[in-house]
Amino acid sequence: xxxxxxxxxxxxxxxxxxxxxxxxxxxxxxxxxxxxxxxxxxxxxxxxxxxxxxxxxxxxxxxxxxxxxxxxxxxxxxxxxxxxxxxxxxxxxxxxxxxxxxxxxxxxxxxxxxxxxxxxxxxxxxxxxxxxxxxxxxxxxxxxxxxxxxxxxxxxxxxxxxxxxxxxxxxxxxxxxxxxxxxxxxxxxxxxxxxxxxxxxxxxxxxxxxxxxxxxxxxxxxxxxxxxxxxxxxxxxxxxxxxxxxx
Amino acid sequence: xxxxxxxxxxxxxxxxxxxxxxxxxxxxxxxxxxxxxxxxxxxxxxxxxxxxxxxxxxxxxxxxxxxxxxxxxxxxxxxxxxxxxxxxxxxxxxxxxxxxxxxxxxxxxxxxxxxxxxxxxxxxxxxxxxxxxxxxxxxxxxxxxxxxxxxxxxxxxxxxxxxxxxxxxxxxxxxxxxxxxxxxxxxxxxxxxxxxxxxxxxxxxxxxxxxxxxxxxxxxxxxxxxxxxxxxxxxxxxxxxxxxxxxxxxxxxxxxxxxxxxxx
Lengths: 247, 264
Hints:
By secondary structure, chain A is an alpha/beta fold.
């Protein structure tokens, strides 16, 4: 139990989405005495079970709409499963986009504190790390400016620096290594490899198979809301590429 | 797990909640006054101007028979400002923070709580002005009675505003009609709350409608506090109102809170 970072048992997620209802539908159903269906069900994940041990780095691949984001949401604890149970042991550090934990009118320091606290890092600890984060993001010259003045590359760097410099336990990364220039990208990948050595659990969702090959030891392939394959990176990726090319 | 470990986890959680609350409050404050010259002074100026308009309209034009009309107006106007601001901002609070709620499992009720606390701070900044007006007009303020009553009303008003912001904010995630309804409700509510008139000025059938409005009891209690007439019975009544609304808010929160992220 101590060794497990994430464990999902028979997890299914069905979204209940409110249909667009207008007063016309309401009136119509009332006049015809028909029962009005207010919502529809959309299945996102079916019977997902897997366990991730501490220090493992797992890639998640699959077509758009296969359920990757829902899976990340479940692990992050934001989305509750319809069936089954999700067990997470450790602090989750998701990489945030602009608008998430960031606010455009606050400067880099304020955003670091906001983000860090929301992620569950104690304020004291964040204060100590402020300069390291700014340094890693290479934003020393701009740190006092509101981040609405930043370029998208600078924002990506800041976001990445915050999650990675605050001693993450479980990293959730959703297709972000794509932003930033080549040099920063290399720096990120180095850092991820470093985290691997420090036994930080990494969950990486990406369409970039090269990144997955470099970082992950294991890949989970989602197809049609189910796990199609779960195994060592080489094995799963070769099968995946084969299927994608033939399709 | 032993008891000590459980209690230290609990302590950690409480600390986390407090820190989230504080950073969100700070963010709200900074964002609200970005690029304004007068900053928070606006939130004092606005109700004072509103009071001025009421004064001219009802004292000069309609000759409402109330002595010391400016003192009569002020507490109610500031309470109204707090209440209506919380509702206007609270109804959007979850939708505004969608990106955040969808990524991080933070306790969602903290979001409307920061909204109403921000307006509480504005109210607190206005209190010295109110006290000054009352002292200036020769009303004594008994420190002990005033402080006890003030803290009680402040807490009750905070919880009452919070529960309404939470209820409307939650429902607005699912039906955007709620936002329109809240706007209409507020326009209507200011007339059925005895802010610029006294219950004595109102005829029989209308009084019943005004007495059905929960905010009526808050406004009258605040006014009585500043006039030194606040009774224990009034505090009990608004306590019951507050607890009722907190109960409703809690019920709706339990029902819908987990469904917010996927519906944003």
